[in-house]
Amino acid sequence: MPYIRESIITTVNEAGEVHIAPLGIIAEGEGWVIAPFRPSATLDNLSKRPVAVASYTDDVRIFAGCLTGRKDWPVVPVENCPVPRLSAALAHSVLEVVEVQEHELRPRFLCRVAAEETHAPFTGFNRAKAAVLELAILVSRLHMLPREKIEAEIGYLTIAVEKTAGPEEREAWDWLMARVDAHFSDAGKSSN
Ligand SMILES: Cc1cc2nc3c(=O)[nH]c(=O)nc-3n(C[C@H](O)[C@H](O)[C@H](O)COP(=O)(O)O)c2cc1C
């Protein structure tokens, strides 16, 4: 399996409006592949303006927020680039699309790294941050996964959150758990 780096991808549409989405960018040689499932605003934007910025952040509220309707995270301009980065980025890469591999479900945008910059130090791993990231992935796949698997994974991830979360990780976890609860309560209603 290739190395995947979990990032916050910014793109812009033809009107210049910014779109923010968490995506795992896939290492390929010196570059990265952005692979959005259809339908996706990131995909539409990249098809028309083939440049993205990958922001690398340890603020897991941004991953959780984007998946729970909280997309209004501050961005700042990047020099010589039409697309801004997250202001919370510890570092970012400007990714220019050099090839598109069309696919019915999941096209692949092969990108070269046009520029990279570091903004703040990485201050170490935290288990609750990793757990929030895992729960965010689960939330993005709720419609595909069986309830038992979701509950078993949440059971395990909860241990790290209870032992190691700060207020930001706790907030991000709560946003995601509200989404999980809503999913199960909708599923309960439709099976009645
Ligand atoms: C850590 C993480 C990685 C993700 N990676 C991908 C990805 O590679 N491709 C994808 O289509 N969605 C991915 N998702 C889900 C997208 O963030 C989500 O579906 C999003 O709404 C994309 O659609 P949009 O471009 O319309 O916003 C990921 C979510 C998380 C939390």
Describe the protein's topology.
Blueprint (H helix, E strand, L loop, with lengths): L3 E9 L5 E11 L2 E4 L6 H8 L2 E6 L3 H7 L8 E2 L8 E2 L4 E11 L6 E11 L8 H14 L6 H18 L2 H25 L1
Bound molecules: flavin mononucleotide.
Write structural notes for this entry.
This protein is of the alpha+beta class. The chain has 2 domains: 4-118, Pnp Oxidase, Chain A (Roll), CATH 2.30.110; 127-191, Methane Monooxygenase Hydroxylase, Chain G, domain 1, CATH 1.20.58. It is 38% helix and 29% strand. It has helices at 41-48, 60-66, 127-140, 147-164, 167-191, and strands spanning 4-12, 18-28, 31-34, 51-56, 75-76, 85-86, 91-101, 108-118. A hairpin with an 8-residue loop joins strand 5 and strand 6. The protein is globular. The termini are far apart. The mean pLDDT is 96. The protein binds flavin mononucleotide. Flavin mononucleotide (FMN) is lined by residues 6, 21-24, 35-37, 40-42, 63, 67, 133, 136-137, 140.
| Helix-strand sequence | EEEHEHEEEEHHH
Number of strands: 8
Q: Give the fraction of residues assigned to helices.
A: 25-40%
Q: How is the CATH topology of the largest domain named?
A: Pnp Oxidase, Chain A
**Strand residue content:** 25-35%
Number of domains: 2
Q: Biggest β-sheet: count, sense, barrel?
A: 6 strands, antiparallel, barrel
